[in-house]
Specification:
Length: 163
């Protein structure tokens, strides 16, 4: 009867709907965690619980995460006189920063100013990963000309991006 009540509680009091099999796994993980704690006198780690239940480690982690209450991104994690830090302040997107977007826009603008021939050479070299000799054959010019055009195009991009 108690086991049934625990299952019902886990099912009905979760802010996010989780599959029945995941909830059942979470229930088994919690039971195993309690049993192993009672036996050893200390809280078991994820690996120990997984071995005890005979399930993959990641299933234990997923099950425990599935029954955790969600946290608001605006939940304060630190508060001082007049200042507080939220979860949102603690996590950051290092790839999509304002600087990244500005650099991307500047690069696209600099690339638009190149001739079609220079764009094609740079695309073959840096997007397709071809050598200067391969680019020379594809475009129908010498390797030395590819080198000169590539160098000039890169110099022009740098100049346009810094302007």
């Amino acid at each position: 009867m108690i086991a049934g009540e625990l299952r019902r509680f886990l099912r009905d009091h979760s802010a996010v709907r989780v599959s029945r099999s995941m909830r059942d796994t979470a229930y088994k993980v919690l039971q195993a965690k309690e049993r192993l704690t009672a036996e050893s006198g200390r809280e078991p780690d994820i690996e120990t619980i997984a071995k005890h239940l005979g399930i993959p480690r990641q299933d234990v982690v997923f099950a425990l995460e599935a029954i955790c209450d969600p946290v608001s991104l605006y939940e304060p994690v630190y508060s001082d006189v007049g200042e507080s830090a939220t979860v949102m302040d603690q996590i950051g997107d290092t790839r999509n920063t304002d600087e990244h977007w500005l650099e991307q826009i500047a690069l696209e603008e600099a690339m638009r100013r190149l001739s079609e021939r220079e764009k094609r050479i740079l695309a073959l070299r840096y997007y397709d990963g071809r050598t200067q000799m391969e680019v020379a054959k594809a475009v129908g010019i010498s390797q030395a000309q590819v080198s000169r055009l590539e160098k000039n195009a890169i110099r022009q991009i740098k100049k346009n991006m810094s302007a």
